[in-house]
């Protein structure tokens, strides 16, 4: 849209000073944008905890044209506009652009189940793990975790085939496996375990099998046992075993399964 006018020059008739139209347009665009994006480098960490929203402010980038393209990409991803996302990337948008809460465009596309945009971003070398491991912010999901939360099997398999870190746990040890257990998605649990998910890591003070046993998810407990989960691992806080918490919560099918596997009280 701007290509046809980049060569145009404006003349100030009173001073005779020539103004480059592209520079004026670029600065004007940067001044009025209401979307905050960033490049791949870490930005300042927010001090107030609140949920991500579609409201953004423009980051201080030195190149107004790239700022505009990054903002265009972010808006395209938010709305599922594949065509606009393609144009923005071809014009130099950063495939790892972030919103003000630290969520990359790949995480956003994953959380909205936009598979075509996810594929496009990966083609443009977006970081498949979606965040700086040294940056703590309030949008902790990796792209894989977002896909797991949305129960998007095709996207989950795509990320795993492209080398996504299945055990990445950016917040309190919570990994993709823990999200699948929380959602009671046994099919996703199996996919993640087959891909090397750790069945014995601790997330918020408990192992996956403890979490599954406490909620009575028999099929998931069975899978975790099959893939080597420690059936006697105690939770940090309660100091209870999976069998004890299943008994306490009266999940009799889980109790029976754990006893058959040799679990101890």
From TrEMBL:
* Keyword Ribonucleoprotein assigned: no
Question: One Pfam family for this entry, by name?
Answer: Ank
Q: Does the keyword ATP-binding apply?
A: no
- Keywords for this entry? ANK repeat, Repeat
Which residue intervals correspond to the ANK repeats? 101-133, 139-171, 172-204, 204-236, 238-265
**What residue stretch is flagged as signal peptide?**
none
- Judging by the UniProt lineage, the source's domain of life is Bacteria
| Matches recorded under InterPro entries | Ankyrin_rpt, Ankyrin_rpt-contain_sf
Protein name (record): Ankyrin
Gene3D superfamilies cross-referenced by the UniProt entry: Ankyrin repeat-containing domain
């Amino acid at each position: 849209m701007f290509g046809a006018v980049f060569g145009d020059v404006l003349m100030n008739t009173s001073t005779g000073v020539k103004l480059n139209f592209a520079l004026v347009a670029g600065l004007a665009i940067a001044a009025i944008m209401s979307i905050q994006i960033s490049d791949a480098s870490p930005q300042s960490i927010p001090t107030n905890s609140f949920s991500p929203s579609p409201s953004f402010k423009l980051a201080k980038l030195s190149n107004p044209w790239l700022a505009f393209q990054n903002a265009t990409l972010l808006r395209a991803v938010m709305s599922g506009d594949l065509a606009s996302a393609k144009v923005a990337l071809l014009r130099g948008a950063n495939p790892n652009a972030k919103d003000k809460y630290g969520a990359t465009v790949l995480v956003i596309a994953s959380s909205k189940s936009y598979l075509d945009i996810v594929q496009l971003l990966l083609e443009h070398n977006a970081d498949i793990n979606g965040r700086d491991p040294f940056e703590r912010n309030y949008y902790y999901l990796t792209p894989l975790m977002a896909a797991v939360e949305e129960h998007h099997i095709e996207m989950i398999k795509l990320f795993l085939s492209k080398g996504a870190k299945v055990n990445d746990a950016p917040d309190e040890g919570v990994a993709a496996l823990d999200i699948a257990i929380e959602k009671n998605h046994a099919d996703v649990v199996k996919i993640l375990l087959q891909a090397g998910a750790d069945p014995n890591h601790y997330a918020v003070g408990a192992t996956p099998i403890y979490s599954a046993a406490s909620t009575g998810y028999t099929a998931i407990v069975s899978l975790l046992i099959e893939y080597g989960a420690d059936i006697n691992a105690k939770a940090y806080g309660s100091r209870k075993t999976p069998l004890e918490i299943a008994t306490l919560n009266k999940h009799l099918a889980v109790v029976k399964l754990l006893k058959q596997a040799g679990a101890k009280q």
